[in-house]
Description:
single chain, alpha+beta, Alpha-Beta Plaits, DNA polymerase, domain 1, Dna Ligase, domain 1, 3 domains, five-stranded mixed beta sheet, four-stranded antiparallel beta sheet
Amino acid sequence: MALHSLYVDLNSFFASAEQQLRPELRGRPVGVLPVMADTTCCIAASIDAKRFGIKTGTPVWQARKFCKDIVFVQARPAAYVEIHHRIVAAVESCTPVGEVLSIDEMACELMGSDRQEAHAVKLGKEIKQAIYTQVGEVLHSSVGIAPNRFLAKTASNMQKPDGLVVIRQDELPQRLYGLKLGALNGIGRAMEQRLNQIGIHSVEQLCTASRETLRHAWGGVEGERYYAKLRGEVLDSLPTQRASIGHSHVLAPELRTPDSALAVLYRLLHKAAMRLRHYGYCAGGLGLHLSYLKTAAGHAHWVDQARFSPHADTLRLNPVLSELWQRRPPDPGAILKVGVILTHLVEHSQVTRDLFDPDDQHAPLNSVLDQINQRYGPNTLYFGGAHHGRGAAPMRIAFSHVPELQVESDG
């Protein structure tokens, strides 16, 4: 079976982007933070910082303990998105990008002679060089080449930083045996526990398990698909539909009061509602979650949600958020992190109007708000509840979501 997929994974992307934009940071251990506060953690660590054991999720205090010379910088998502698009263009100058999987990952399908190993390796080197010359000399990437996308992603993780690894069909499945279960895409902590419960504790045991065993482990056809992917088979992607739209934010120390936290929540809700309309969806649910500073009793969290007839009206979402906020129990401490999520999404064209509310009276107002904020910046017009939070909650980048600057820019 020929090689079919090439996977590009940027190494320490946020931190490398900062080092590219700020040459004085090159060669130094860098930690990227969501906000400049000692109570937060690194959302990215430079290649230099990783040598000290610092990684995504390492608390600031611990990072300082590991490396006293670490430099912390606040994340600049808009800058990373711009660099991301330049990287995509650089890869496209070598071969078409089949799919952008995240801000720092993309997959290319090999065609024609590029399916031969020598040509595929040459293409991988050309892609790495194109990123260096067209975007930045410190933007390293790891390239994986394999019979399918799943194995190409696996290969890209096998040699970091700056790796180029090929997994050949005739090496399967033995080539995978040295990996840990958690190193395979699709096996998180919960899935690993389920596999352990049926006697699978290693990748070798996973690869030698029957198709029926994996179907049972995954609870359906995804187990059969996993069985096939481990063997290098090329599968069609399953259709996906956006399940939710949300935003969360770690509060700066001066915003950890109830009034300020609520203002930031309104800001997050309004950003999510604008994205909802931009993507052509309506939401039938709103979730609210709060995290508190650690106390003697440990970390405290609170989550609640509300359901309603699907719509995309910010004015009708505001009182739902207010009601959820009023339902929260007494705060056990200072509020560290807040988040909202719009759920039960339905395409706008598929929504049946409520019998008792047949007119979407606020549609023109929402449209005007969106147009003005997209043109002049997201804080040009806003609802009063978000006033004290208008400077907070800047753009964030999720693992599987590349923000659109048109609707998520901070102005």
